[in-house]
Amino acid sequence: GAVVSQHPSWVICKSGTSVKIECRSLDFQATTMFWYRQFPKQSLMLMATSNEGSKATYEQGVEKDKFLINHASLTLSTLTVTSAHPEDSSFYICSARVWQDNSPLHFGNGTRLTVT
Amino acid sequence: AQSVTQLDSHVSVSEGTPVLLRCNYSSSYSPSLFWYVQHPNKGLQLLLKYTSAATLVKGINGFEAEFKKSETSFHLTKPSAHMSDAAEYFCVVSGRANTGNQFYFGTGTSLTVIP
Hints:
The structure holds two protein chains of two kinds. Chain A has no helices and eleven strands. Chain A has strands at residues 4-7, 10-13, 19-25, 32-38, 44-51, 57-58, 67-73, 76-81, 90-97, 106-107, 111-115. Chain A starts with a strand and ends with a strand. The model of chain A has no long low-confidence stretch (mean pLDDT 92). Chain B is globular, with a radius of gyration of 14 Å. Chain B starts with a strand and ends with a strand. In chain B, strands 2, 5, 6, 10, 11 and 12 form a six-stranded mixed beta sheet that branches. Chains A and B meet through strand 5, strand 9 and strand 10 of A and strand 5 and strand 6 of B.
């Protein structure tokens, strides 16, 4: 149980285009989803927290107009990287959890974004 | 405030020997603690979690961890390393659910297993 599916697993796009990444909780309802960015050999950097039906909360330094997050249902959140540039190339990971005491995070398999 | 420190950025062991990955935490509340493993270009997989029940927690793939409040530690161990254990490991601490969705990640420990 507690499977999170993230698509695509990798994507290559041209500079200036937009890319959408999907994160789905397959067998549970995720009240909260998180989006992370991970640089090589580093830990995860939290970008934003999204609760179903409300606006995402972005971490300091993360551009909300560039990284659009939508959490329209209890099983789906999307991250859209708008007007992508080479510096946006990275590994993006989503996670989801149920709002209850001590529930862990369940992670997707990540998306490798390369902007050319 | 909460934080987590993974004391070793890299650990190297021989196949068949014990594994010890160290984690210390700081928390103003009774914490929940987790260990995750990440293989290259993959997401994080939950190995085990501590949530104020038994202090010795058994997880998947033969891993276990012991919560020691007096030492504020939650070290991950495995009696015998396997080649497939080579990966990045993250210790994570979180507060009570009613304190919000706050999860704090360690900087990770890279485990190398030598054949």
